[in-house]
Amino acid sequence: MSNRKWSLGLVFLVLIFGYVLIRFFAASTRVDDLVQRIGRGQGVSASAKHVVLIAQELDNPFWREMEQGAVEAAAKQGMKIDYMGPIRIDAAEQTKLLEKAIAAQPDAILVQGIHDAKYDQWIDKAVERGIPVLTVDADEADSRRLAYVGTDNLEAGKQLGRFVVKDAAEGAVIGVIIGSELADNQRLRLEGFRSVISMAPNFQIIDVRSSNISRVGAAKQAEAMLKEHAGMNVIVGFSALDAPGIVEGMQAAGRKNVHVYGFDDLEATRKSIAEGRIRATVVQQPAEIGSEAVAQLSRLFKGEKLPRQLYIPTAIWDAEALKSGGEG
């Protein structure tokens, strides 16, 4: 019987591996096709501007919303958006996509910053070749990118800090989960959050861990923190999947009465806010970021000078805000 179970398990693993492999090659083929289409200008008038939007993760809801905003704005401005990104978050793959996009000579590139010297060099190379680059979501300030369009992540961290201090008025022992220790937007959110918490009496941050931008990772880290720190009564997540993962980690640790705060507007986050398991979330506007980035490119193509940074406002959504239609 044990041999039979082992054989079935092996077959199952082989099937999973095959599925992942097929998805990988399919995505690679799709990306290569997109790059070729950029070069050929397939299906677009000769006067249309070709813009490449490189996402951090291809099918991430945040980036799909940004794509939608960019595509809708581009249609009004006589531009064509070609959207691409890694299947899973992978800085090396994101760099390769930037390299391929530059080789295809589009009219402009929109890309997330990843705070990496090699990435800076590729952005600089694009600009040297006459391809303007704007960063979205996270900046690459040390590069020659022309402008950043997105959230003011330092201020967003402060915004969440002020809400936590007001919401947990008697004080808090806080754990923090960030998506990545390397991501500049995560670093800035944490910096802003710390600056507020450090000034509040009876509030302290006692642990900071990384989820690797994974719901499972956030759940494991939250469970570990809660088991290690018996007095922890607040956990904050700074990437989109962190707060739902933290809720799962609380359940695994057998802990209740822990206030959870997060980032972004996911269905799982909304549901948990409505059910009282998440107190609030900082909501960004990815569609507006995409739309505004295209608007800035339109200005650039007309010869206008762009601001170095253009911040898109964020809002706090709690249960009351959701009941009133998400106007925090």
From TrEMBL:
Which InterPro entries is this protein grouped with?
Bact_Solute-Bind_Prot2, Peripla_BP_I, SBP_2_dom
Periplasmic binding protein domain segment(s): 52-305
Query: Keyword Transmembrane, does the record have it?
Result: yes
Membrane-crossing residues?
Answer: 6-26
Which key words are in the record? Membrane, Transmembrane, Transmembrane helix
One Pfam family for this entry, by name?
Peripla_BP_4
Keyword Metal-binding appears in the UniProt entry: no
N-terminal signal peptide: none
**Where does the record say this protein resides?**
Cell envelope
Name the domain of life. Bacteria
Give the UniProt family note: Belongs to the bacterial solute-binding protein 2 family.
Q: What protein am I looking at? A: Substrate-binding domain-containing protein
Give the organism, scientific name: Paenibacillus chibensis
